[in-house]
Specification:
Blueprint (H helix, E strand, L loop, with lengths): L9 E4 L2 E5 L10 E4 L2 H9 L6 H16 L6 H9 L8 H11 L5 H24 L7 E4 L6 H11 L5 E5 L6 H12 L4 E4 L4 H6 L5 E5 L2 E2 L5 E4 L2 H10 L4 E5 L15 E2 L2 H4 E2 L2 E2 L9 E2 L1 E4 L6 E4 L5
Parallel strand pairs: 4-5, 4-7, 5-6, 7-10, 10-16
Antiparallel strand pairs: 1-2, 2-3, 8-9, 9-15, 11-14, 12-13
């Protein structure tokens, strides 16, 4: 089975963490070298990697620490990791690692076992999503689900189901037009890019017949946090009677979406792009990186099963 580079965008070789720089795609496939946890945490903050890449990076940070024989710094490193991104909470992962460190099994073995389980679980998640897709379906997606969308398409193709995709640009970072469209095209699927504001028009014209998105956070009541714009798409899907599926992580301890902290990114990321000013000087910007989609708008959650 073929995998997109985004399916597993972090590698660990000879004590160095190699991080696929997603900000350079689709023009350049390049990796950042992180030789310590400070450099790795900076890559998370600067969104050099995101979604599953951040989960992998957290685990590889701890592996690197073990190789450097600095396990005494576990608490300090955990604190640094947990401070990087508020909406995608890493506490679930760091608490798991700290728990393993207190157990009898070697910490390195526990981490490697988790990573292997995660790889298998991601494939299983794609297989579950593929079961919901029919021959001839056109799927609308928003943002990027780290290699799962082309994998879902690949599974459908092997089952004799032809599928195509529409992806939003996903402003302002353009994960849809830079990442999702790139990996879907590379996998041989028909993909059409639309701006975020075109979703209602496309749905009203019958060009898509189901929606699949990811999620960065799942509350216990089924509410999700995902890239800003997801909530609006869910409302539109309900209006046009289209199924709305979510590829989501395990539920956190938060009761509902109201408790999820929304990360407010620097407005510069919205007002500028690759050094080019997009708005008049002096104009302010507001960039909440995520929004909350209520569980009642979600047709089906497709959770990632993580074995601790």
């Amino acid at each position: 089975m073929k995998f997109s580079p985004l399916f597993w965008p972090i590698q660990f070789k000879n004590g160095v963490i190699y991080i696929l720089d997603e900000t350079l795609l689709p023009h350049k496939l390049a990796y950042i070298k992180a030789r310590n946890y400070q450099q790795a945490c900076r890559a998370i903050k600067e969104m050099k990697t995101r979604a599953v890449g951040q989960v992998l990076l957290v685990m590889y940070i701890f592996l690197q620490l073990i190789k450097q024989k600095k396990q005494k710094d576990l608490a300090k490193v955990t604190k640094a990791i947990n401070a990087t991104r508020p909406t995608l909470s890493f506490k679930f992962l760091t608490d798991m690692v700290l728990g393993w460190a207190k157990g009898k099994a070697p910490l390195e073995k526990c981490i490697l076992g988790f990573l292997e389980g995660l790889r298998c679980s991601r494939i299983q998640q794609a297989e579950e999503a593929a079961k919901l897709i029919k021959n001839g379906d056109c799927i609308l997606t928003h943002c990027n689900v780290s290699g799962l969308m082309p994998l879902i398409g690949e599974i459908c193709r092997k089952q004799g189901k032809k599928v195509s995709f529409f992806t939003t640009e996903t402003r302002p970072y353009l994960q849809g037009s830079r990442l999702t469209a790139w990996e879907l095209q590379n996998a041989g699927f028909e993909v059409t890019i639309i701006t975020d504001g075109m979703v209602a028009a496309v749905m009203s014209q019958g060009k898509v017949n189901r929606v699949i998105v990811g999620a960065d956070h799942l509350a216990r009541n089924g509410d999700i946090a995902n890239k800003v714009g997801t909530y609006a798409i869910a409302v539109l899907a309900r209006h046009f009677k289209l199924p709305f599926y979510v590829l989501c992580p395990p539920a956190s301890q938060l009761k509902s979406g109201k408790e999820i902290k929304i990360e407010i990114r620097p407005d510069k990321e919205m007002l500028e792009y690759q050094g080019l000013r997009l708005a008049p000087k002096g104009v302010k910007g507001y960039y909440p990186a995520f929004d909350i989609t209520p569980s009642k708008l979600i047709t089906k959650h497709i959770p990632l099963e993580i074995k601790r």
